[in-house]
Design goal:
The chain is α/β, with parallel strands linked by helices. The protein is 35% helix and 25% strand.
Length: 526
Amino acid sequence: MKVLVSDSISEEGIKILEEQGLEVIYKPGLPYEELLDLIEEVEGLIIRSATKVTKEVIERAKKLRVIGRAGTGLDNVDLQAANEKGIVVMNVPGGNSLAAAEHALALLFALARKIPQAAASIKAGKWEKKKFIGVEVNNKVLGIVGLGRIGGIVAERALGLKMKVIAYDPFVTPEAAEKKGIELVSLEELFKRADFITIHTPLTKETYHLIDEKAFFLMKDGVYLINCARGGIVDEEALYKAMVSGKVAGAALDVFEKEPVDPNHPLLTLENFIGTPHLGASTVEAQKVVAVEIAKQVADYLTKGIIRNAVNVPSISPEVLKIIGPIITLAEKMGLLATQITDGAIKEVEISYRGEISQLDVRPVTIAIVKGLLYPFLKEDVNYVNALIRAKERDIKVIESKIEMAEDFTSLISLKVTHTEGTTIVEGTLFGKKEPRIVKINGFRLDALPEGHMLYIFNEDKPGVIGQIGTILGKHTLNIARMYVGQDPMKETNVILLSLDQPPTAEALAELNKLNTVYLVKPLEL
């Protein structure tokens, strides 16, 4: 069997593949057109961030069984296309977390003491001691946007430097942050109080241009900004203006919206700007760890059928997967739905298995639910292997129970999520033992296929409301593929789930929210 390695990885990883009897085609920096040709003859593909595994690449693959990412991020892989073709996608979550955290701290010190500028000056034959007076980090306020694994490491190190650490993360409870010595605040308060701001959140629709002109307006004069997370979270044009005006005393970016960065990018003209070419994970130790681990995972799958750290398949045997695979799909969809209609930080997860499912080993199902709950804000940093670990890191309590009897269905999964804003309850089952269905949301009965782009609407139950909703969506050229309505005559309210052919636009959502008869609108990706 052949494995194509299309990005540079440590030699230790190549050796492991060869020792397992696999033929390695090592082509770091492989052009896209050559990738399209070579992908047809390989069973495995190992990449880093440079290779773009598009739908076209996956469609050209005739033998491909596994894609392995030597690292965490998978935004360069078309996961939907891989799922449709039954290709296992693996990564190495957490393998480079320490390296990324240390790079953020290195940039923090570089900004505070103007190290790159001073080094360039002395190499130019100058001795400009007064020009490069810096600031101390001791007793300064560090604002961390995103308190996940990397953000947590940064916080721990910063506390050791005697910095005051505040953080914004809507998915972390104040109690969990307090245990780590961190004050949890709103994003607006973080902008107003922080002397240094460092970003450690995934790039999502919600975080795209999170740091924009409005954000800079709220920040202290003379603030320092660091981004080692993902390009696109910082509006680079707004950052340039804020630096020119003096609002931002210095900024350091390891990631850019477009990479490689344009040599004529305006930020590169500023003396108080530091840029590095996406080096967050580029340490000898981190590269060895992720190369060795992904090589072992790919080799184990191709030679033994063992699945580990897959983002789209649980780590269980193929025989067991055939039995509970549809249940796992349902479970993850339930988690995804629940977390997307929930506003507060999750504190506790209660899962009740009723009927025939109570006789099975439900641990993989529980893991799938937790993965679904955490995925919208952790993205590729959570998978079927580490989901329960990630929940524990955030002080989320997970409780399972089994009940032999199910009133209306042969099997039923009930998910209750307790969060800082209240509770969310979602119930689901399988129709025909294969088709996932959501049968109840917060007490409202319905029969919904959880799939694709959807809209969750909580509205007043009165004539004409559904017509108004349909009219607005039609006006914005959004086609309703399916509609599910859950009624509660006692409450005179409805829950509506709409399946759309494409994601709803911001304009359509804004217009729906203006309806007096609509109380809540949430776009869903299932």
